[in-house]
């Protein structure tokens, strides 16, 4: 195929309504010119990260809506918006797999194009990290404090699987999916350059893994351990075996005798 012919078509035009509304000329012009790529994988690298920024822009925009709905105590609408955020994070994690088709050697060539840049400078990531504490405070003020509730009451002593609990689980899933995205990113780094290498900031990449252990809503993680420990105090950490065979009786059967082996051979 004639590369130049199809390269020209990939940029689209500015005459059709679809192109004008989505501003495809600007969108498709966000990548380096084809003849300036350091290798064939660089277009993939740029597009994946640019799309990640677009998803994070939508995620941040939606978090603003969630915060307002929590302040209005419009819990059902907030839950729907949380679902949108959850889907975005799953998409962000899933598309990282594209970068696994890039060899470590090819990535080293791309890495030289980054200057001193790194994912820690992502505008989307930085703004989302700032937003999440606000989301927790809005939930806490309007669904816990305003109702005289605690996280423990919602999950255990006054558990009723109500709107307050459902929103807490929305927050929990948001945190969990964000941690999964970070973990997947760490594994991708490990696969591409190794975890012991120095980053473009001159620091060990291991520091990135330490950052992935952060929990945005620790109260929702901690309550699970607290409940399990409290229940353990009631029924004990070592429980009675189920009715029937004892653990010793349930062990592996004795090895077959010589007569039994002979019968099996026959």
Beta-strand fraction estimate = under 5%
Radius of gyration: 27 Å
Terminal Cα span: 68 Å
Q: Helix/strand-derived class?
A: mainly alpha
Low-pLDDT stretches are none
| Annotation, overall tally of beta strands | 0
Explain the overall architecture.
This protein folds into two domains: 7-36, no CATH class; 44-224, Up-down Bundle (Methane Monooxygenase Hydroxylase, Chain G, domain 1), CATH 1.20.58.480. With 266 residues, the chain is mostly helical. The protein contains twelve helices and no strands. The longest helix has 31 residues, at 42-72. The relative contact order is 0.09.
Question: Key terms for this structure?
Answer:
single chain; 266 residues; mainly alpha; Methane Monooxygenase Hydroxylase, Chain G, domain 1; 2 domains; 12 helices; 64% helix; extended
In short:
With 266 residues, the chain is mainly alpha-helical. It contains twelve helices and no strands.
How are the secondary structure elements laid out?
Blueprint: H1 3-10, H2 17-22, H3 24-28, H4 42-72, H5 75-95, H6 104-111, H7 123-144, H8 151-157, H9 163-192, H10 206-211, H11 218-235, H12 258-265
């Amino acid at each position: 195929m004639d590369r130049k012919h199809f390269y020209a078509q990939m940029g689209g035009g500015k005459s059709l309504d679809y192109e004008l509304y989505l501003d495809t000329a600007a969108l498709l012009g966000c990548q380096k010119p084809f003849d300036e790529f350091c290798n064939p994988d660089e277009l993939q690298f740029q597009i994946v990260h640019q799309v990640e920024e677009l998803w994070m822009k939508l995620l941040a925009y939606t978090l603003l809506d969630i915060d307002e709905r929590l302040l209005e105590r419009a819990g059902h609408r907030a839950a729907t918006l949380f679902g949108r955020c959850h889907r975005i994070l799953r998409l962000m994690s899933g598309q990282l797999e594209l970068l696994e088709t890039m060899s470590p050697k090819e990535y080293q060539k791309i890495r030289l194009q980054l200057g001193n840049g790194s994912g820690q400078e992502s505008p989307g990531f930085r703004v989302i990290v700032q937003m999440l504490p606000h989301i927790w405070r809005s939930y806490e003020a309007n669904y816990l404090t305003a109702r005289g509730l605690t996280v423990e009451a919602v999950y255990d002593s006054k558990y009723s699987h109500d709107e307050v609990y459902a929103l807490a689980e929305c927050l929990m899933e948001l945190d969990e999916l964000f941690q999964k995205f970070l973990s997947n990113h760490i594994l991708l780094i490990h696969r591409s350059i190794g975890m012991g290498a120095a980053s473009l900031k001159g620091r060990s990449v291991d520091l990135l893994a330490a950052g992935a252990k952060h929990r945005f809503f620790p109260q929702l993680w901690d309550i699970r351990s607290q409940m399990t420990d409290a229940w353990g105090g009631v029924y004990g950490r070592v429980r009675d075996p189920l009715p029937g065979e004892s653990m010793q009786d349930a062990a592996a059967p004795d090895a077959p005798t010589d007569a039994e082996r002979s019968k099996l051979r026959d």
